[in-house]
Amino acid sequence: MDINKRHPMPCRDPLVRNKDFKEVATGYDAETAIEEAKRCLHCKHRPCVSGCPVNIAIPDFIALVAEGKFEEAYQVIAKTSALPAVCGRVCPQEKQCESKCVRGIKGESVGIGRLERFVADYHNANTPLKKADIPKNGKRVAIVGSGPSSLTCAGDLAKMGYAVTIFEALHIAGGVLVYGIPEFRLPKAIVQREVDGLKDMGVDVETNVVIGRSISIDDMLQKYDAVFVGSGAGLPRFMGIEGENLKGVYSANEFLTRINLMKAYKEDSRTPVQHGRRVAVVGGGNVAMDAARCAKRLGAQEVCIIYRRSMEELPARAEEVENAIEEQIEFKTLMNPTRILGNENGNVTGIECVNMELGEPDESGRRRPVAIKGSEHIIDVDSVIIAIGTSPNPLIKSTTAGLEVDKRGCIVADENGRTSREGVFAGGDTVTGAATVIKAMGAGKAAAKAIDEYIKSKAN
Amino acid sequence: MYKILKKERLNSSVTRMVIEAPFVAKKAQPGQFIILRVDKDGERVPFTIADYDRENETVTIIFQVVGAETSLLNLKNEGDYIEDFVGPLGNPTKTDGYKKVAVIGGGVGSAIAYPVAKKFHQQGTVVHTVVGFRNKELVILADEFKAVSDKYLLVSDDGSTGKKGFVTDALKELIDSGEAYDLVIAIGPIPMMKFVSKLTKGYGIKTIVSMNPIMIDGTGMCGGCRLTVGGETKFACVDGPEFDGHLVDFDEAMERGAMYKKFERSEECRLFGKEVQ
């Protein structure tokens, strides 16, 4: 095999897999993993490590994979990453570790994410969970939310001996890992194992508790030495165009929650979801890709992505875009919806769009899309899913006096997660706005360290 | 898991349950709701808090059996457990600053109107209650309402109990007879709330309605419960469930409420099919 090319990820046939919710990528086998690991050049300056938000010792674990020492490789990753089976699957590696790989200059970078996933899956298949016996230090920390930043923060604090309680508003822990990212990209059994692992470390998980309603941050500060807020950015944005409240228009959050959390795709599920025949998904991020691919799997004949910029600017992971194209999702780029049309029963019948062209760069550095006058046209659809972004839920802000937020509603915190309230730390999407799983984990990690320092400084 | 401490039939299709739920009981206020899942395969369904007891850490819900989830819930007995029970959700009813209010309850919606009427009564507001039912057999909470109301009017569609007619007829009569309310609060089926709002708009009386759209999470993360109020999109679970009745687009709310009608019907059939076996 060409040394400049990486070993392809084995995947299920696109036209078979787009009819069910089973995992698309089947993962490397041991032999392929060893071969791929041998492509690593073990650079002295280790640029890949700096591309990883939690700085996994990438060349070290890869060297162990090359020797067939998979469990040892796992132990190297586990030192800095709490969720390798998740991150190996959902990180945008092409923008992180793999973007810095020296192999990538002349050819294809080493498949770091694929190797991480292989190692984590190997560990999970061969090492049963066992209760850890960690001496407790007598201090208590409350964690708000159970997404990636919270799980990471909880794990790190538990390892240090803190009594940690996670409070989750929904009935299952995992945040976006359970309600957002679909089974075909991230099997829920993997997330459950991570949560079970935390429980074995002594972390308490209280589901069905809404912070700001069931209990406030101030209540928590009475009982806990510190609080970490990792409540994410779960409030969906709508476009504010005509027809958005018609039947058949979903926020991606609602559509994905019905499918992933409530299992509405299953025959015997008691939660319904509309099975559109012609579906338009508005937006170009990973959430849009997930929603489009779910709609296809529910039996839609035609699914299109409507995105106002061009293919080059799509913010979704390259692999997800490729997978979506293979699964016959159509991309209508340089296009923006102007209104949604309905019939007399209030059901969606079409979406009117206008063509766009790219003008001057905007404050984000990307070229600003501008509508081409008179190019309005109608696309026949019976379902529209809006995936144009989310922002933090205002509930915590509105019920916690003195907690500073910025104009987007994001909690203001420094790089160590310290907020304007003493003893309250925050990290992940609730601070940055919608970002990535690995960045949230990095924030959870930094906050755990800062919480430990804070509690120790108060004890002295 | 949340234990059912008490179960009581209020009429042929309405049940009252007292459930052990410490977190909810501690913070619950009139006008708020909970979301429950009966079992592991269940749907998340909203129910309004009909009463609460902070000391005993219990929350009361009153529900009508209308579909799969409520049927399954109704099969549970005292001592059984409910899988998930989360709340309190939504904003509490604003009760400050009113001297004389009319509380209007329709059908099982009057179970939601009751804690609101009780709170007004406890703070010294004059409370007139108008409750409407299809017929005599369906009347619930009569004694409870009487205990917290300065005036209690019962109407029924068929005249089998109280006065024959709709709640709007009775409310109109009260207003026309010179009762000056500074607030009307209506809780019940959407058409009832729509017509109460229509009536009071003519008289210029401030009117609050409690909306009951389809919900999933109930925490503001999906917008499934969105409705149009004064031309703006609002999420009932976090911005409501109470809104100014003169600003709500009731027709849109009714359409959206019927979104899964087909599914619900087939679901009910499947469920009852299983039970018969």
UniProtKB/TrEMBL annotation, chain A:
Using the record's annotation, list all stretches that form the FAD/NAD(P)-binding domain: 220-444
Name the keywords, alphabetized: Oxidoreductase
Q: Name one GO molecular function term.
A: iron-sulfur cluster binding
Q: Which residues form the signal peptide?
A: none
Q: Supply the InterPro entries for this chain.
A: DPD_II (IPR028261), FAD/NAD-bd_sf (IPR036188), FAD/NAD-binding_dom (IPR023753), Helical_ferredxn (IPR009051), SudA-like (IPR006004)
SUPFAM superfamilies, per this entry?
A: alpha-helical ferredoxin (SSF46548), Nucleotide-binding domain (SSF51971)
Q: What class of enzyme is it?
A: oxidoreductase
Q: What is its EC number?
A: 1.4.1.13
Which positions fall inside the Dihydroprymidine dehydrogenase domain? 17-126
**Name of the protein in question:** NADPH-dependent glutamate synthase
Q: Which gene encodes it?
A: gltA
TrEMBL record, chain B:
Protein name (database record): Sulfide/dihydroorotate dehydrogenase-like FAD/NAD-binding protein
Which keywords has UniProt assigned to this entry? 2Fe-2S, FAD, Flavoprotein, Iron, Iron-sulfur, Metal-binding
Record InterPro entries: Cyt_c3_hydrogenase_gsu (IPR012165), Dihydroorotate_DH_Fe-S-bd (IPR019480), FAD-bd_FR_type (IPR017927), FNR_nucleotide-bd (IPR039261), OxRdtase_FAD/NAD-bd (IPR001433), PyrK_electron_transfer (IPR050353), Riboflavin_synthase-like_b-brl (IPR017938)
- How and how many cofactors are bound, per the record note? Binds 1 [2Fe-2S] cluster per subunit.
SUPFAM superfamilies (UniProt xref): Ferredoxin reductase-like, C-terminal NADP-linked domain, Riboflavin synthase domain-like
Q: Where does [2Fe-2S] cluster bind?
A: C222, C225, C237
- What organism, scientifically named, is this protein from? Candidatus Eubacterium faecipullorum
- Can you supply a Gene Ontology BP term from the record? pyrimidine nucleotide biosynthetic process
Signal peptide (UniProt feature, chain positions): none
Q: Which cofactors does this gene product need?
A: [2Fe-2S] cluster; FAD
Q: Which domain of life is it from?
A: Bacteria
